[in-house]
């Protein structure tokens, strides 16, 4: 090899090595190829690198550079060929036949999951889905719902006004009127959506939150339909043993009005059961005749009920989350726990 230009010799070795690597029939033969070209003592490429010291200072840098290039190419080819021989248990204990580990690409937000579950139950009960704008007029947000603008209920819920008399809706109840204006009874709708309040951001309040409105209007709808529908919802959502309680309340747009509470039965791992405390899940009531008249309905002919619930609260309870804010901080370590 001494009578040959070392750069030419390296190029020839590169071709030889790559051919030998491609032809190696198994891992042992491949190892022999590695030793014969790159082995520290007798490797043919290693020998040229070792000879660098005896070369002239003019020759040395170019030969060194070429030797390193060829060494790199041969190493890469050896690794690639090595993978061809790697079966289960090969490649240093890695099982390359295992399916790749999935990358979590995101999932439905826990509040969205709660909305979907609640919607699924009402859909089975014959409801359709409705929606309305998040910015609505004082008429739809308050007045059409029998709430005069100087009523304390309007003050309490004053939110951000965008332009004169258009504000971020403080509840999903405006969807009641918007639906009644468009359709004639029978009406059975569920309307989830974002609402806004002048609330401080703390463990139990967020100034923007999700609400789910429900509205049923038809001839002959009574308080019995109202109670039975919501009790059935609670049983389907929390289990057959769930009890429902209607406490008298006040909303300008329902008469009579109620806060609906549920008491769940929890089964412990040992099979014994335990009743939870009463938990308030929604405001509700029979639709006030004044609201029906505002919609142009004959309030002598039609009656109905309405309700508004907070799915974030329901999700919080279901998952044992103690601070509502964690739902909105977008910490993937928290959100990824809800799978989906
Ligand atoms: N809109 C009421 C609220 O946000 C809830 C409600 C809806 C009450 C429908 C009665 C009927 O507090």
Keywords:
2 domains; 340 residues; binds phenylalanine; BirA Bifunctional Protein, domain 2; 13 helices; single chain; elongated; alpha+beta; seven-stranded mixed β-sheet
Task: Describe the structure in brief.
Helices cover 40% and strands 22% of the residues.
Helix-strand layout with pairing:
Blueprint: H1 6-23, H2 27-38, H3 44-51, H4 60-85, H5 90-93, H6 110-124, E1 128-129, E2 135-137, H7 138-141, H8 152-156, E3 161-163, E4 166-168, H9 174-182, E5 187-196, E6 208-219, H10 223-238, E7 243-251, E8 254-263, E9 265-267, E10 273-275, E11 279-287, H11 289-294, E12 302-309, H12 311-319, H13 332-335
Parallel strand pairs: 1-5
Antiparallel strand pairs: 2-4, 3-4, 5-6, 6-12, 7-8, 8-11, 9-10, 11-12
Helix pairs in contact: 1-2, 1-4, 2-4, 3-4, 6-12
This protein binds phenylalanine.
Net shape: elongated
DSSP strand (E) fraction? 15-25%
Bound molecules: phenylalanine
CATH topology of the largest domain: the name is BirA Bifunctional Protein, domain 2
The counted number of beta strands is 12
| Tally of DSSP helical segments | 13
In total, the number of domains comes to 2
The secondary-structure class comes to alpha+beta
Q: Give the C-alpha Rg.
A: 37 Å
| Terminal-residue CA separation | 66 Å
Reading the helices and strands in chain order gives HHHHHHEEHHEEHEEHEEEEEHEHH
Helix content: 40-55%
Biggest β-sheet: strands ordered side by side in the sheet:
1-5-6-12-11-8-7
Give the biggest sheet: 7 strands, mixed
Low-pLDDT windows of residues: none
Mean pLDDT: 91
CATH superfamily of the largest domain: Bira Bifunctional Protein, Domain 2
The CATH class of the largest domain is identified as: Alpha Beta
């Amino acid at each position: 090899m001494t009578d040959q230009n070392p750069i030419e010799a390296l190029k020839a070795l590169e071709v030889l090595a790559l051919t030998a690597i491609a032809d190696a029939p198994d891992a042992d033969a491949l190892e022999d190829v590695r030793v014969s070209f790159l082995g520290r003592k007798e490797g043919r490429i290693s020998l040229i690198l070792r000879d660098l010291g005896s070369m002239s200072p003019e020759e040395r840098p170019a030969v060194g550079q070429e030797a390193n290039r060829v060494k790199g190419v041969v190493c890469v080819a050896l690794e690639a060929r090595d993978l061809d021989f790697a079966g289960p248990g090969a490649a240093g204990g890695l099982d390359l036949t295992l399916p790749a580990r999935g990358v979590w690409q995101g999932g439905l937000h826990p509040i969205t999951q709660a909305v979907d579950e609640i919607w699924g139950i009402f859909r089975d009960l014959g409801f359709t889905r409705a929606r309305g704008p998040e910015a609505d007029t004082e008429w739809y947000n308050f007045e059409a719902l029998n709430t005069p603008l100087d009523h304390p209920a309007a003050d309490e819920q004053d939110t951000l006004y965008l332009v004169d008399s258009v504000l971020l809706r403080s509840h999903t109840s405006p969807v009641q009127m918007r639906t009644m204006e468009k359709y004639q009874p029978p009406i059975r709708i569920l309307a989830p959506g974002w609402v806004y309040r002048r609330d401080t951001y703390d463990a139990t309040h967020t100034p923007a939150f999700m609400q789910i409105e429900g509205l049923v209007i038809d001839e002959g709808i009574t308080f019995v339909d109202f109670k039975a529908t919501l009790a059935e919802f609670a049983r389907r959502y929390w289990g057959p043993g769930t009890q429902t309680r209607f406490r008298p309340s006040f909303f300008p747009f329902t008469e009579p009005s109620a806060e609906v509470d549920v008491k769940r039965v929890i089964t412990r791992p040992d099979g014994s059961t335990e009743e939870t405390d009463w938990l308030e899940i929604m405001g509700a009531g029979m639709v006030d005749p004044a609201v029906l008249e505002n919609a142009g309905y004959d309030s002598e002919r039609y009656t109905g009920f309405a309700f508004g619930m907070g799915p974030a609260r329901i999700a919080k309870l279901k998952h044992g989350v103690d601070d509502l804010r964690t739902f909105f901080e977008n910490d993937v370590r928290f959100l990824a726990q809800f799978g989906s």
